[in-house]
Write a structure and sequence with these properties.
Blueprint: H1 6-16, H2 19-26, H3 46-70, H4 78-102, H5 108-124
Helix pairs in contact: 1-3, 2-3, 3-4, 3-5, 4-5
């Protein structure tokens, strides 16, 4: 079986993941421990998979807002624009830490802290779909 690179999986998840999934993980939904979830190809464990899904959902949100701004269907005030841009920087940094964790060069705690920061910043944005 051919392994799919994680960047490819993230892109696929970003295109297909719904915000409800990312929000569910952000809200700390309980997992069924009696029947642990089956891991999607390319993930090492459930933490890897959950963080990947959260980041994919956050990326989808970011790109959706960016597309709306570019299409001029959404206008951001200066302070919101600064927060949104900071969120993009945090998201890119979290992707890097997550990929380092996925590749074995960062700890799960480091990756989880980066993902938590993304979720926190996203939830604080006064934009549609942020919470």
């Amino acid at each position: 079986m051919k392994r799919v690179p994680i960047k490819t999986l993230l892109r696929i998840c970003a295109l297909t993941a719904g915000m409800g999934l990312a929000i569910g993980f952000a809200a700390g939904c309980k997992t069924n421990t009696a029947n642990p979830p089956v891991l999607a190809p390319g993930y090492q464990n459930s933490a890897d998979q959950e963080m990947g899904k959260v980041l994919a959902g956050a990326r989808k949100f970011y790109l959706s807002i960016q597309d709306q701004v570019n299409a001029k269907t959404l206008t951001l005030g200066d302070s919101i624009k600064a927060s949104f841009n900071a969120f993009g920087v945090t998201l890119n940094a979290a992707d890097s830490v997550y990929l380092a964790y996925h590749n074995g060069t960062a700890t799960q705690a480091q990756a989880q802290a980066a993902v938590d920061k993304v979720q926190s910043e996203q939830a604080a944005l006064p934009l549609p779909g942020a919470k």
